[in-house]
């Protein structure tokens, strides 16, 4: 007999993992060490890859396997490696002073998660009882929350490198939205987006390096010569 | 490399003309199983991008030779003479990449690829912004990369949501599910709340790239730090690409929700951009930043025109886009000549009386200022007038009043600044000869600008009218 995967089980697994991704994102907000922020990002990306694989398995969307492989290889492997090397080369380990202190930041992150759920609620059509609607509902909320928290992290942190990390986790939220809503974008688009992310990190990495060399600091708030 | 670049862009312009001819003959062209798709709207954008990159590459030859003579690149002692060569190679490698992404934006059938290409223009131009490697250039490049990065991620979210709402209608055909040619036909059945959110995100995202207030803050920095030819391409080519993306989604959205919803948003953001530009233009101390605010003002005008909608508003917008792309590079070139001559970009240090030390640039600068600020007989007056008519016929009387008031303020601010710079007593700066590359690009483009004031080539106008038909009728 042909084995038919149970979509109900798949949904539960995915929701669980999406929750983990969200927890990691909030943990990253409270993080003080740059290296551990990078590691958290790597684990989060790995989980996203796993989610993509699970969705691919339970819904027979085979092109998602490629996206899953790519995200694990790029965002959980290559990019964290590159960023860690950058951290070593410019020799900073610690002290990312956020503008808002850690407990309050975490509280704000929690609030943004709620907001994510509120926004996602408006997409929920209870009359659609298909598995996809239920799946989209939960993970979309997580995706929007990731997006918002990533945005918040970028505003909150002043170090150039942590802003890059914020941008990357924001991108992770988009990836989650894409795979959970539509089982991934068309493959060409997916490839293009990965390529862009890779190049963007390299460009930003070079910029971070140059800023560090020129200003002897990574504090973006020191970039304030261009004012009206 | 100069020669390679020049010939490449000349060929590109020729190919763009061929594409326009084909589109005019047969309506729309697609290639590679519908991967590339061109209708009148994309052909117009391709033509403008190709034109801008051609004139900019001609000017660039003279500009960088002047830079080499002035030893701008020699600040880094350890690099010695090699540094200049290295820098030029960087410019002549990045520009084709940059132009390639701009062309891809207009030709991609798939809205996801369109996003990828717009992000590509950002990535290619970040290094153009930090070209001179000064502290301020790094700051500008950082601001540009981060703001555009965040903005475009919003646009990506909007694209995903659009795909989602199309997905429910079109089924699981993932290959062509984001293709424009497929989406445009079915937009009416898309999920409405999703499309609404998607349009907001797209407007914020591509609006950031087009430099619409309040997401415009990267623009003055990036434009004043990038080398002049690069800045001119940012101000025209990238602006057109971002607006092109916006227009594509506007079409989908007005088919799905009716034009009302998107119009209000566009009008608010457009008028806000024009309004924001006013005070900064009036009190500006730096003429490169002045150009950036003028560009914010013009993107605001185009967004506003899109918001007014109707055949008249869209016609005004596309005419404005065309005329703006022709006129703006000349303004940048003149500013570049002045900056290279005086080695400053501050009005205070420039002291005025430029017409004595650089008669050609001075005269062209005055003329193009009048043209960009929208005074008759230049072409931008025609398009702004068309937009005003669209506003009046749409019944937006109060908005039309603000539109005109802002434009008058900007006109006067601009004119005061530039006349102070160009006219006046001779401060006794020695005249220096201009290299013929710079001279001919300025004179040639000035002739085109003047000619456009009186005469639009019939095929070009036909193309614009067809593009209007696509935006209004959607097909």
Question: Could you explain the architecture of this structure?
Answer:
The complex is a heterodimer of chains A (228) and B (475). Chain A has one domain (7-214). In chain A, 77% of the residues lie in helices and 0% in strands. Chain A has helices at residues 7-29, 34-59, 63-90, 102-121, 131-156, 160-182, 187-215. Helices cover 80% and strands 1% of the residues of chain B. Chain B is built from 19 helices and 2 strands. In chain B, strands 1-2 form a two-stranded antiparallel ribbon. In chain B, strand 1 and strand 2 form a beta hairpin. The two termini of chain B are 42 Å apart. Chains A and B meet through helix 5, helix 6 and helix 7 of A and helix 4, helix 5, helix 7 and helix 8 of B.
Task: Walk me through the topology.
The complex is a heterodimer of chains A (228) and B (475).
Chain A: H1 7-29, H2 34-59, H3 63-90, H4 102-121, H5 131-156, H6 160-182, H7 187-215
Helix pairs in contact in A: 1-2, 1-5, 2-3, 2-6, 3-7, 4-5, 5-6, 6-7
Chain B: H1 2-26, E1 29-31, E2 36-38, H2 40-70, H3 82-107, H4 111-129, H5 135-170, H6 180-186, H7 192-210, H8 218-225, H9 228-257, H10 259-282, H11 287-308, H12 310-342, H13 347-350, H14 354-357, H15 359-372, H16 379-393, H17 397-422, H18 436-454, H19 458-473
Antiparallel strand pairs in B: 1-2
Helix pairs in contact in B: 1-2, 1-19, 2-3, 2-9, 2-12, 2-18, 2-19, 3-4, 3-9, 4-5, 4-9, 5-7, 5-8, 7-9, 7-10, 8-9, 8-11, 9-10, 9-11, 9-12, 10-11, 10-17, 11-12, 11-16, 11-17, 12-15, 12-16, 12-18, 12-19, 15-17, 15-18
Number of helices of chain B: 19
Number of folding domains of chain A?
1
**Strand residue percentage of chain B:** under 5%
Please, how many domains of chain B? 1
Work out the number of β strands of chain A: 0
Largest sheet features of chain B: 2 strands, antiparallel
Radius of gyration of chain B: 22 Å
Structural descriptors:
heterodimer, A: 228 residues, mainly alpha, 7 helices, B: 475 residues, 19 helices, 80% helix, 1% strand
């Amino acid at each position: 007999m042909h084995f038919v995967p149970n979509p109900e089980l798949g949904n539960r697994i995915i929701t669980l993992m999406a929750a983990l991704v969200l927890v990691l994102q909030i943990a990253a907000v409270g993080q003080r060490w740059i290296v551990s922020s990078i590691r958290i990002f790597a684990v989060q990306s790995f989980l996203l890859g796993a989610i993509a694989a699970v969705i691919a398995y339970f819904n027979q969307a085979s092109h998602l396997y490629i996206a899953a492989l790519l995200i694990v290889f790029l965002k959980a492997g290559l990019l964290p490696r590159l960023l860690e090397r950058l951290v070593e080369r410019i020799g900073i380990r610690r002290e990312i002073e956020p503008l808002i202190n850690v407990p309050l930041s975490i509280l704000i992150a929690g609030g943004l998660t709620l907001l994510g759920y509120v926004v996602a609620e408006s997409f929920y059509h209870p009359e659609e009882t298909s598995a996809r609607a239920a799946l989209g509902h939960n993970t979309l909320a997580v995706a929007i929350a990731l997006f918002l928290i990533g945005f918040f992290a970028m505003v909150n942190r002043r170090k150039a490198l942590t802003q890059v990390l914020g941008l990357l986790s924001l991108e992770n939220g988009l990836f989650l939205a894409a795979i959970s809503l539509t089982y991934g974008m068309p493959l060409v688009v997916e490839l293009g987006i990965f390529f862009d992310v890779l190049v963007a990190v390299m460009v930003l990495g070079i910029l971070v390096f140059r800023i560090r060399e020129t200003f002897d600091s990574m504090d973006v708030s020191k970039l304030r010569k261009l004012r009206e | 490399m100069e020669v390679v670049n020049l010939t490449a862009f000349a060929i590109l312009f020729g190919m763009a003309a061929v594409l326009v001819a084909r589109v005019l003959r047969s309506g729309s062209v697609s290639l590679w199983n519908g991967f590339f798709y061109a209708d009148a709207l994309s052909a117009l954008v391709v033509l403008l991008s190709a034109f801008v990159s051609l004139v900019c590459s001609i000017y660039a030859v003279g500009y960088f030779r002047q830079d080499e003579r002035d030893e701008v690149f020699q600040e880094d002692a350890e690099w010695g003479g090699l540094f200049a060569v290295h820098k030029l190679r960087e410019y002549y490698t990045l520009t084709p990449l940059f132009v390639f992404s701009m062309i891809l934006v207009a030709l991609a059938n798939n809205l996801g690829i369109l996003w990828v290409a717009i992000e590509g223009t950002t990535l290619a131009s970040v290094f153009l912004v930090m070209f001179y490697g000064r502290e301020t250039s790094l700051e500008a490049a950082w601001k540009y990369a981060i703001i555009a990065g965040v903005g475009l991620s919003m646009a990506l979210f909007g694209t995903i949501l659009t795909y989602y709402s199309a997905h429910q209608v079109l089924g699981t055909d993932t290959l062509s599910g984001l293709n424009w040619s497929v989406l445009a036909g079915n937009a009416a059945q898309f999920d409405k709340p999703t499309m609404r959110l998607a349009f907001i995100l797209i407007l914020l995202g591509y609006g950031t790239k087009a430099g619409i207030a309040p997401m415009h803050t990267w623009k003055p920095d990036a434009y004043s730090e990038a080398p002049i030819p690069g800045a001119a391409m940012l101000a025209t080519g990238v602006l057109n690409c971002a607006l092109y993306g916006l227009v594509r989604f506007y079409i989908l959205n007005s088919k799905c929700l009716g034009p009302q919803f998107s119009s209000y948003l566009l009008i608010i953001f457009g008028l806000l951009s024009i309004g924001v530009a006013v005070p900064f233009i009036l009190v500006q101390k730096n003429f490169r930043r002045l150009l950036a605010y003028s560009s914010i003002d013009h993107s605001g005008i185009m967004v506003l025109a899109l918001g007014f909608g109707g055949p008249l508003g869209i016609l005004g917008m596309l005419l404005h886009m065309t005329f703006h792309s022709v006129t703006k590079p000349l303004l940048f070139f003149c500013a570049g000549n002045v900056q290279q001559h005086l080695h400053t970009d501050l009005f205070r240090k420039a002291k005025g009386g430029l017409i004595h030390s650089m008669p050609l640039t001075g005269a062209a600068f005055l003329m193009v200022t009048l043209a960009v600020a929208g005074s008759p007989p230049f072409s931008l007056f025609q398009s702004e007038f068309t937009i005003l008519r669209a506003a009046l016929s749409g019944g937006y009387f109060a908005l039309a009043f603000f539109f005109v008031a802002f434009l008058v303020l900007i006109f006067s601010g601009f004119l005061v600044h530039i006349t102070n710079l160009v006219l006046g007593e001779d401060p006794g700066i020695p005249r220096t000869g201009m290299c013929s590359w710079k001279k001919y690009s300025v004179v040639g483009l000035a002739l085109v600008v003047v000619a456009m004031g009186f005469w639009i080539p019939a095929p070009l106008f036909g193309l614009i009218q067809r593009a209007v038909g696509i935006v209004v009728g959607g097909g």
